[in-house]
Amino acid sequence: MINDLLILLGRLHPLIIHLPIGFIVLGLLIELNKKKLAWSGEAIKYIFFWSFITGIFSIFSGYFQYEKGGYLWETIQFHLIAGISTVLLSFGFYLYLCGNKYLNYLPRKFYTVGHFVLLTVTGHLGGNITHGEEHLVEPIKNIIGLEVIEDIPKPMKYSDYENETVYTTLIKPIIDNKCVKCHNQNKSKGGLKMHTQEALVKGGRNGAILNFLDPAKSEMIKRIHLPKGDKKHMPPIGSNQLSRQEIEILDQWVSMGVRFDQTVEQFELNQKLIDYFFNYKESFFPENQVDLPNMDLIKELKKRNILINPIFKMSNFLEVSTINNKKFSDADLRLLQGLENNIVSLDLSNSAVTDSIFFGLNRFLNLTILKLKNTRIEGRGISRLQNLNNLKRINLVNSMFQNRYIDSLMKITTLEKVYLYSEHKSFKRSNDSIFNKIIDFGYNEFKNLNSSI
């Protein structure tokens, strides 16, 4: 009963602390305008008296939060010292305003400036405890232009991690994301730290959380399987919960003896867990690095009604469309000179291009998508695109493409899909499975054609 009450008082600290803060801020505002306010003398005295009283309550509630909340002394000591100093300064200012002869030798500005400095320092240290040390400085870094590196999880490819330990690859990231917030070097609820392998093995005030002799009885596993309504359930309600797959992999790791040297390959993950944790997918577009595109050139091209956009934010790869420039011809391809390595998607649909365009397109080495819908393309010279190792899709819908060039088209070995249907003609078909997988004739699907392909 008493313990629960102290826990409650500790958790009320973020609320209680705003009372002395409010009194101090109000008092300082009146102090700055005291010459304009005839009643300021008694008001300031009254305000700083109550900032002292509420400050005492804040100190006690903060101490209970430290004691019952699992915080380390090293984490809160300077915040506590600064808070006590602020409260003592408020009491000193109150005595000064009452005419205490021992405090009158200090100038009045000492109290006002001191309150401002201590309030700022105490608040900042408290914010660091609650939100982390980067909470305030991170946006400042952005404002002044310093680079802020975000911890963005990267897709993982299973074959790249087979020889890595399962602990560092899978277990530790789960613990870091779901447990370390409350069990780290600065804050250790129940005396438990989980931020390192050694801390995990050591356990907390109630003993070890990993049972190497009988893994099934490990306290960590028991806690994550408790109903969410149980106060001992971990992570606690209000925190990010473990996914079903994360629970499954923790179960498997503990049941196999909590081996920190076990490799991912030895761990023998089932396919569902591999798909969940190793979610690497080959990028559709090239992954090589290219230089920034020429922005002056892009501006000039846009003036000619050529649409140019990055394929996604912060990418140097571009998608280019001449959809608004129907007069774009073979000769106009030279306008794109300087962007050949940046262009991965080129839409020349409804333009005036002919087969001669292929003699220039073979320089666009990163070209991945080529759209030639509703053009006079017949296919002569299309084999010149064989050197484009990234070319995956060609759209020739309603072009003048001829049957006799389909074999040349199929020699482009990187192709994954070719859209070749037409309203006015049919194309030869093949029994070859690869041919039918790549070539989409779409005889009855023209009306449902998705313009995004």
What's the SSE blueprint?
Elements: H1 2-11, H2 13-16, H3 18-32, H4 40-69, H5 73-97, H6 108-131, H7 134-144, H8 158-161, H9 166-178, H10 197-202, H11 219-225, H12 244-255, H13 264-267, H14 271-277, H15 295-303, E1 307-310, E2 318-321, E3 343-347, H16 358-361, E4 369-371, E5 393-395, H17 406-410, E6 417-419, H18 433-438, E7 439-440
Parallel strand pairs: 2-3, 3-4, 4-5, 5-6, 6-7
Antiparallel strand pairs: 1-2
Helix pairs in contact: 1-4, 3-4, 3-6, 4-5, 5-6, 9-12
Report what the structure shows.
This protein has 453 residues and is mainly α. It has 3 domains: 2-144; 158-277, no CATH class; 295-448, Leucine-rich repeat, LRR (right-handed beta-alpha superhelix) (Alpha-Beta Horseshoe). It has 18 helices and 7 strands. Strands 1-2-3-4-5-6-7 form a 7-stranded mixed sheet. α16 (358-361) links the parallel β3 and β4. The two termini are 67 Å apart. The relative contact order is 0.05.
